[in-house]
């Protein structure tokens, strides 16, 4: 009784009635989901007046079909024509309840003299292409009649850099364009007086092992100070004082043949004596100060190529795994052991002109544009091609195991007479024999 009384509450009763109604609608829609759809029947015609009773035409005395109606009688109202049956499509039927939604929208008839619509192609239509199509031939012909100049097609965009067109090529410097071809030979002599500024090694000088033990745990500027002091004090192998001539011959400013002889160290700067020595890398400031003290200069990249061509011993480069240890003292000691094993295996004696085992710290005009950097170049393979192209990516204090310092005397010989090498490098008539960059300012060779 309590539950029955609860259903009599108006609000609850209305809710249950609504729920039952929705259930009924849903059940009806579910039952009709598969029932065939029937078009709606045309509306019944309702007569506005009573029709005469039906007449049996077969009875005797029945009027004929063609007989006129009786006098005073009105003819019956004509029936309306039968309505056209509506056509159904998917758009006229709800996909949920499949209830008929009405006839489709009216379609206007074809206009007179209008061509019938094209028949649908059995093949599926292709999506429009993104690439533009060619111009029609008629349009191209009309375009050509206007005498317009042909337009070159635009190249497709690409991220790969392309060579500069010939018309935009930068003009080569005069000294570079006129770079001569010349030969290299081991000819001439380097007198002992050229190394008068290089101190001799004292008998009390520390061994290479003792010096390197002091710098084992330091690098950079602190290590350079120790090694620079040792070398400027003469603690270096005696064979480095025996300079080696490298003579190049080529056309001079007036076309006649000229010869220039350079006197170069046979190997890279090292600590120790002739039997136990270690080649040491240095930053650019320390290398420049040592060169100035010894009345020498660092080579240019072209000089490095000339020295390699004139070398008695050409060693194969022996790169070590790159990493943070490249600049440590232990790393260049290990590399020196490898190089010495190569030199002995090749039969080369200490004091012979040897190359190919180090990159050179060089001087270049690029240093004027990027001050505070060091330039390196070389480490030639057996085919004469260097592993390291000219680079100025490192700071001036940077030095790793692959770097070497080879010095060249400022005293050179031009056609039998003594000249200053710096004067030749800044002379436009002879600079092309020593560098590919044209005349170089002597400020580049000044110690920092």
Can you give a write-up of this model?
The structure is a single chain. The longest helix is centred in the N-terminal third of the chain and has 22 residues, at 10-31. The protein has a domain at 174-443. It has helices at 2-6, 10-31, 137-145, 174-177, 208-214, 220-232, 284-293, 301-310, 329-346, 366-369, 421-425; strands spanning 183-185, 244-251, 257-264, 270-272, 277-279, 296-297, 313-314, 354-355, 359-362, 373-380, 386-395, 403-404, 408-409, 411-414, 417-420. Strands 1-2-3-14-15 form a five-stranded antiparallel sheet. A four-stranded mixed sheet has the order 11-10-9-12, covered by helices on one side. A two-stranded antiparallel sheet has the order 4-5. It is α+β, with helices and mostly antiparallel strands. The protein is built from eleven helices and 15 strands. Strand 14 (411-414) and strand 15 (417-420) form a beta hairpin. It is elongated. The chain is 24% helix and 15% strand.
Summary tags:
448 residues; alpha+beta; five-stranded antiparallel beta sheet; four-stranded mixed beta sheet; 24% helix; disordered N terminus
């Amino acid at each position: 009784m309590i539950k029955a009384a609860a259903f009599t509450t108006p609000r609850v009763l209305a809710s249950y009635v609504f729920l039952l109604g929705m259930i009924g609608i849903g059940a009806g829609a579910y039952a009709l989901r598969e029932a065939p759809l029937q078009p709606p029947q045309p509306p019944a015609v309702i007569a506005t007046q009573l029709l005469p009773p039906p007449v049996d035409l077969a009875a005797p005395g029945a009027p004929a079909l063609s007989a006129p109606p009786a006098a005073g009688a009105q003819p019956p109202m004509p029936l309306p024509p039968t309505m056209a049956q509506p056509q159904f499509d998917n758009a006229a039927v709800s996909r949920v309840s499949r209830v008929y939604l009405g006839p489709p929208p009216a379609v206007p008839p074809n206009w007179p003299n209008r061509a019938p619509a094209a028949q649908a192609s059995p093949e599926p239509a292709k999506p429009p292409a993104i690439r533009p199509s060619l111009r029609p031939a008629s349009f191209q012909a009309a375009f050509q009649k206007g005498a317009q100049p042909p337009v070159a097609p635009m190249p497709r965009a690409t991220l790969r850099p392309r060579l500069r067109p010939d018309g935009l090529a930068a003009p080569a410097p005069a000294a570079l364009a006129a770079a001569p071809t010349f030969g290299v030979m081991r000819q001439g002599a380097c007198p002992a007086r050229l190394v008068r500024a290089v101190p001799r090694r004292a008998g009390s000088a520390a061994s290479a092992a003792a010096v390197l033990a002091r710098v084992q745990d330091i690098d950079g500027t602190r290590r350079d100070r120790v090694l620079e002091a040792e070398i400027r004090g003469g603690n270096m192998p005696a064979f480095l004082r025996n300079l080696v001539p490298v003579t190049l011959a080529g056309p001079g400013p007036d076309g006649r043949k000229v010869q220039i002889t350079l006197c170069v160290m046979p190997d890279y700067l090292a600590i120790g004596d002739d039997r136990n020595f270690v080649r040491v890398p240095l930053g650019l400031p320390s290398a420049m100060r040592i060169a100035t003290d010894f009345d020498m200069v660092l080579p240019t990249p072209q000089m490095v190529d000339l020295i390699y061509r004139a070398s008695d011993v050409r060693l194969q480069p022996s790169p070590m795994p790159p990493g943070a240890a490249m600049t440590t003292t232990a790393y260049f000691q290990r590399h020196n052991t490898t190089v010495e094993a190569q030199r002995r295996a090749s039969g080369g004696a200490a004091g012979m002109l040897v190359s190919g085992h180090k990159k050179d710290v060089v001087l270049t005009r690029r240093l004027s544009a990027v001050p505070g950097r060091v330039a390196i170049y070389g480490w030639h393979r057996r085919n004469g091609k260097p592993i390291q192209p000219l680079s100025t990516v490192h700071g001036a204090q940077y030095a790793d195991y692959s770097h070497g310092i080879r010095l060249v005397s400022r005293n050179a010989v031009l056609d039998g007479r003594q000249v200053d090498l710096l004067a030749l490098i800044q002379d436009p008539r002879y600079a092309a024999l020593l560098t590919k960059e044209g005349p170089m300012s002597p400020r580049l060779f000044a110690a920092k």
